[in-house]
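User: quick one
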Amino acid sequence: MQRDRAMDICRKLETSVAGAVPVLVGFLRDEIQKTGHRNAIFGLSGGIDSAVVAYLAVLALGKDHVYPLIMPYRESSQASVNDARQVLADLGLQERMIDITSQVDAYFSCQECATHLRRGNKMARERMSIIYDQSVVYQALPLGTSNKTELLLGYGTQFGDLASALNPVGDLFKTQVRAIAGQLSVPESIRRKAPSADLWQDQTDEDELGFSYEDADAILHLLVDERLTEDEVVGQGFQGELVDQVMRRIRQNQYKRRMPVIAKVSSRTIGIDFRYPRDWGM
Amino acid sequence: MKSIRVALGQVQPVLGDVYANADKHMAFIDRAVEQGADVVVFPELGLTGYLLRDLTYQVARRIDDRDIGKLIGASQRIDVLFSFVEESAAHRFYTCSVYASGGRVIHVHRKIYLPTYGLFEEGRHFSRGESLNSFAVAEYRAGIAICEDVWHPSVPYLLSVAGMDVLYVPAAGPGRALGGDPHSGSQLFWERLIRTYAQLFTCYVVFVNRVGFEDGVFFFGHSAIAGPDGEMVGKVASHDERLEIFSLDLANIRKERYRTPLLRDEDVHFTQRTLARLVEGQ
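Assistant: Done. Structure below.
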């Protein structure tokens, strides 16, 4: 029952983004150009999220203004690199590869017993520090590639892959990213494969999270978009333990979705009562 | 009765830059004059941008301010309906729309209903308008209701009682709730809303919505006009900047009010008595 209900909700989520591409393309063009920039930069992992961002960015800015970086580590899957290359070939983009092995290994050579988590986070932050550095070279704004499912579940590294100047896919659940990938004719191999952060060999997101993206998206949609209570979601046929786990993740990861908390001592405190839109500075 | 040629000035304001926006308004006014329009209508806060927050304090202008005076002066060539943050002598801040004609202000409407929920924060920064009336323009009577004002049926109702052949609705309507239809849900709501009011009050409804993005919020444009029979007269099928002119045949109002005499049969005294009793009872 849970599976059927989740699939029904996911189908609804997919059809709901039938008209989203022009909005996302307009968002990228408008929010980049008003900053005085014409170019975008981001990490191209070979996964579906960054592939969708690449297609959207080319539509918004033209291929001469889009700079995806492929940044493998020595243990990264060759298949991911191949998928990233396929995106570049399909969009007529030049390959720019920066291997992060030496800098990551140099750091961990003096760190004993680093866990998978620490290593994964470090790699994500190395990649983002490279993107921000290269953004100066290409005079480009860094684009985020984290989708709404990841942002809500906190499935990402703070100041690593979660960092960006603009994120065109942050309000799309994974299911919706897949639907948009279909609309944009992202290569089949990328759309079909199991999502993976490629943090270690044969890792998949769903194994690591402990639930499927379909279940997660359906529950997140009901809890967040539809504002249902946990009991009401369970009433729709979802396992209580899973709903509880999803809700806990949303709450526990709220800090990743906010700017750092500042101690208020003055009469005007940034983020509290000094309230300007980002676009003020443009 | 004759026809009026209404130019829909679907602009993309620069957030917080009154000068740039005033220049753009003047350019649109020039084009509307060239194309033989009788009136050009601009969206809510077209002179300032919408998501102002603390910028409200900086962009506010008195109605006798020189920047505002330029636009009023331009109404010697064509009637102009424009919108900005108005600061009163008592330093209250209002979202206002001005109808100017023949080089002078004919009518000022201060927005009454300030949405302060979800993504809206108007109640934090603005005072609420406290009066409502329609006004005479050449051969017809007009009313102005700004965006959220028309989500309260009392506003168009009261304007209709005051006498209203054309309802102008300047808006800063964000696109939300993307639907399966390749248009945003908001666009469908608005079309339904203006058609309903046009039919119920047997008048023209001129909806002018802004375009562009502010901090990721998408303003969907698709300005439109509905006629007194509830049918669409025309729409700007775009979420880009546009100036489009449509002709409103005022004879259709006469025809429709004879065919469907809803306004003749409206019992305002019954409404007044009942409303007084119900409000008293609360």
